[in-house]
UniProtKB/TrEMBL annotation:
InterPro entries: Mopterin_OxRdtase (IPR006656), Mopterin_OxRdtase_4Fe-4S_dom (IPR006963), MopterinOxRdtase_cofactor_BS (IPR027467), Prok_Mopterin_Oxidored (IPR050612), TAT_signal (IPR006311), TAT_signal_bac_arc (IPR019546)
Residues spanning the membrane: 398-419
Molecular function (Gene Ontology), one example: oxidoreductase activity
NCBIfam families from the UniProt entry: TAT_signal_seq (TIGR01409)
Identification of the protein by name: Anaerobic dimethyl sulfoxide reductase chain A
Pfam families tied to this protein: Molybdop_Fe4S4, Molybdopterin
UniProt KW Membrane keyword: yes
Source organism per UniProt: Vibrio variabilis
Gene3D superfamilies in alphabetical order: 3.40.50.12440, 3.40.50.740, Dimethylsulfoxide Reductase, domain 2
Amino acid sequence: MTNKLKQLLTPSLTRRGFIKSSSAIGGLAAATSAISLPFKSAHAETKSAPGDEKVVWSACTVNCGSRCPLRMHVVDGEIKWVDADNTGNDDYANKDVQVRACLRGRSMRRRVYNPDRLKYPMKRIGKRGEGKFKRISWDEAYTEIVNSLDHIKKEYGNEAIYLNYGTGTLGGTVTKSWPPGKSLIARLMNLTGGYLNHYGDYSTAQIAKGLSYTYGGWANGNSFSDTENSKLIVQFGNNPAETRMSGGGLIHHLIESKAKSNARMIMIDPRYNDTAAGHEDQWIPIKPGTDAAFIAAMAHVMIKEDLVDQEFLDKYCVGYDEKTLPTSAPANSDYKSYILGLGEDGIEKTPEWAAPITGIPADIIIKTAREIGSTKPCAIYQGWGLQRTQNGEIASRAIAMLALLTGNLVSMVVALVHVSRTTTFRLFVSLRLKTLSRPLSQCSCGLMRLFVGQK
Ligand code: SF4
């Protein structure tokens, strides 16, 4: 065991110390090369038959979004062990990095051969929920599906065929599963008369809906790598070190970009997360679900101290103050009035008001507002965790507002951004087989308080 690993496993380490240490050696994936884990012992197995071994390129298709390349070592059609990318020169500037998979990707063999994984068609023979199934052949399964589809179409119409999102696999190696409306099954359903699509999903339902009202769409922004041009990095609940952690994932962009810009980094998160990992200059713990109140109070400071980018707001935004609202808008329905307590709720969003709600002392709110309001360019990021709450749309829009207030829109990033080498797996099929973008019908919910872009 290496000294570094001993340090990592020493119980007396604090969480902060542990995170800092693991980050310093390139994460746990690097540390495990020194200890015995399943994929390492599987490696030893294959050495007995090296002549028969083939190495096949594949990819990690779990739904983290990075889609790292994997090298499957196959003997007699069976994956014996999994290896990571061994190409690239770690030349970040020229996008020639080695996309080293994390532990989740490296355990793909376990996923493929998991005894609980459905590997062949099963037909229910008991009552729904009873858990009784029998194995059937693929031919029987196709016949069952076709007959069932035909029956439903004739009896109820194509509107009764619902295509759900979420298979546990994202971005197949030879096909495409995202966005769901462009997958091969969607194309097949379109060719048979259409289907009922879903809206929202477990990852991004609130931010996708919320930012449509603010920006007209979501996931718009600069690449994460644009952080290298910023002087200040502000992250709200954004933790790619634990969510997109491979050699080509967002954490790699962040570390490389931050090293270049040497920008100050403020992490706002209830938890001291791995992305902070000793790289942060300030960690602001916040009560979960209160980001909007924190930002409203910072907006209050910025408005009172003339730190908002009025020129940007006047030119590009609707609804910051009354002069960009239509004449038909009710009095004091603009954002500024809402913050100053002149709006419908009559509450002035002062730092003292926000402090007990957020758990952040008023003086820290003031100091942070001054720093964000006076530093340009400032990169403002938000992760997806904070929008997975009852009022998640408002939290995501509040963070977008912070970028708008300070004229840092070009630095606003909420998108999944990949290193180009990690995305090549999904391209060729999608280019050949176009799917329609308009299924039969789509529902949407418009229950929102509108701040910016209100018409
Ligand atoms: S970072 Fe994501 S895509 Fe890459 S190996 Fe890990 S789980 Fe798989």
